[in-house]
Amino acid sequence: MFTSTGSSGLYKAPVSKCLLLVPSALSLLLALVLPHCQRFFVYDLQAVKDDFQIWRLISGRIICLDLKDTFCSSLLIYNFRIFERRYGSRKFASFLLGSWVLSVVGDLILVEAVRYSFGVTMARNLPSGFLAPVFALFVPFYCSIPRVQVAHILGPLSITNKTLIYILGLQLFTSGSYIWIVAISGLASGICYNSRTLQVHRVLYVPSWMAKFCAWTLEPLFSSSEPTSEARVGMGATVDIQRQQRMELLDRQLMLSQFAQVRRQRQQQGGMINWDRLFPPLRQRRNVNYQDGRQAEQPASPPLEVPEEQVARLMEMGFSRGDALEALRASNNDLNVATHFLLQH
Fold first, then answer.
1. Do residues 18 and 222 lie in contact, with contact meaning Cβ atoms separated by under 8 Å?
2. Domain count of the fold of the chain
3. Cα(134)–Cα(170) distance, rounded to whole angstroms?
4. Which whole number is the average pLDDT over 274-294?
5. What is the pTM of this model?
6. At residue 100, does pLDDT exceed 70?
7. Residue 306 — pLDDT band, cuts 50, 70, 90?
8. Please, which residues have CB within 8 angstroms of residue 122's CB and are 6 or more apart in sequence?
9. pLDDT computed for residue 296 by the predictor
10. Measured distance CA(86)–CA(6) in Å, rounded
């Protein structure tokens, strides 16, 4: 499995679904039907500085005029939908808004820094589209998504559940001559917002009234039902590969039943699973994200709510309810990570 974004589909991710459908549809429309209107969506920083066309900071940073960028950014948004499921649509939208605004400042600073430092005048136009927030999402992806090894290649090199995402990011990074400016400003804005530098998260956020209005008007249009099956196959997999993956899944379930018997015997003998040993990085990371040293006097936050459907799925695989609850809490309700650690321990 290359993906690390939980269940397939876009349920509980209306913002991600909107970003996938609306900009992609407009990009195709401009490329195939209305090519003469593309000039209104060009990201022209020179026109912004010289002619004060401030509206280009909005129109030029929403729709991709290059279909390759549209495809790569759509795949990345689909994989990053896990953050909307974990933190909620409002917090996810606030991160996108904050990184989108901060990256404008980063673009201007980088262009001027290159011009004054090296005497190089950059191209008049930068790559258009919703690219900077996509690069900004790599910051929480690197910090909060655990790295699970999938396979070894060439000895020390290994393929993990995050390898394909980084390859897509590299493909997007190398898709144009000056896209590195947008990428660097996006990463810098993501670091600034994720680390809460200068308290920008208190200024650049989606207000509660706007979140309620969007939930009432737009969420019914972009909501999706939860998928009934969780069968996963690799991208571009053939029928033989799918059959092999199903056989591996059956073998894993047989091994799981054996592990469950050993676990029940251990529990009957008074043994307990050491969850702090299994999930130390996740628990430490959760403490770093949600606790502040200056607020140590405040009472501890209540335990994380665990969806019953995820607990039921783990129990159907042979795990006890207690182990399923602890694994899901320690992994921030990531069913893939919880299942992986339960299988390995």
1. yes
2. 2
3. 12
4. 46
5. 0.66
6. yes
7. confident
8. 111, 114, 115, 178, 181
9. 46
10. 10
